[in-house]
Amino acid sequence: MGFVKDLHTDEKMAPAVGVLFSAVSENVGRLKSIVSGINRELLEYKGEHGDQNSIAQLISHLINVDTRWVYRLREENLPRELEEAIGPMTDENGLLPEVKGVPLSVLLSRYDKVLEALKNTAEQLTEEDLLKTVPYEGGLATIRWGIWHMSDHNRYHQAHIQALIKAFRKREG
């Protein structure tokens, strides 16, 4: 009999909260395994025509979005100093900001801190809290949807990252 895949929940969390957090955590782990060992050239590779977001940009984008979600889930404003540290969501042209010269280990360490902040937040949430609404893109979203969205958004960009890796390796021969 083989290994059983499951979402490993944290006993300190309400059951549904634990499942949702586990989905985010597992996707962050999957992302780390996908990018494990890539070099700086691949980390900053922007596709065959140089017009795509690099892996560094995508990871930085996930960090930025997830940090904002953690504060949204806490129903707190993002501290100004943290907002300055993570930078804007997009540049003046509506594109993801450039990320150059930042080692993969630094990006992943930053993501670990976001995941830890999410874990600390999730440990405080009750099942009932999942139904609370928070502002999202001019409307509202439940906290339950927000945590699920963090997981889904991570997985969505993993597809872009895998495509960049495949294109880079094909180019390398």
Describe the protein's topology.
Elements: H1 15-35, H2 40-43, H3 55-73, H4 80-86, H5 104-122, E1 133-136, E2 139-142, H6 143-172
Antiparallel strand pairs: 1-2
Protein name: DinB family protein
Domain DinB-like: 31-161
Pfam families: DinB_2
Tell me, what is the CATH class?
Answer: Mainly Alpha
Rg over C-alpha atoms, rounded to the nearest angstrom: 17 Å
Sheet-strand content, in percent, reads under 5%
According to DSSP, the number of beta strands is: 2
Give the integer mean of the pLDDT values.
Answer: 95
Largest sheet: 2 strands, antiparallel
| Mass-distribution shape | globular
Which second-level CATH architecture applies?
A: Up-down Bundle
CATH H-level homologous superfamily name: dinb family like domain
What level of helicity do the residues show?
A: 55-70%
* Total of DSSP H or I helical runs spanning 4+ residues: 6
Order of helices and strands: HHHHHEEH
Poorly predicted tracts of residues = none
Strand order of the largest sheet: 1-2
Number of spatially distinct domains = 1
Taking the alpha carbons of the first and last residues, their distance comes to 38 Å
- CATH topology, which one? Four Helix Bundle (Hemerythrin (Met), subunit A)
The class by helix and strand makeup works out as: mainly alpha
Question: How does this structure look, described?
Answer:
The termini are far apart. A two-stranded antiparallel ribbon has the order 1-2. By secondary structure, it is mostly helical. The protein is built from 6 helices and 2 strands; from the N terminus they run αααααββα. The radius of gyration is 17 Å and the shape is globular. A hairpin with a 2-residue loop joins strand 1 and strand 2. Helix 1 runs parallel beside helix 6. The model has no long low-confidence stretch (mean pLDDT 95). This is DinB family protein.
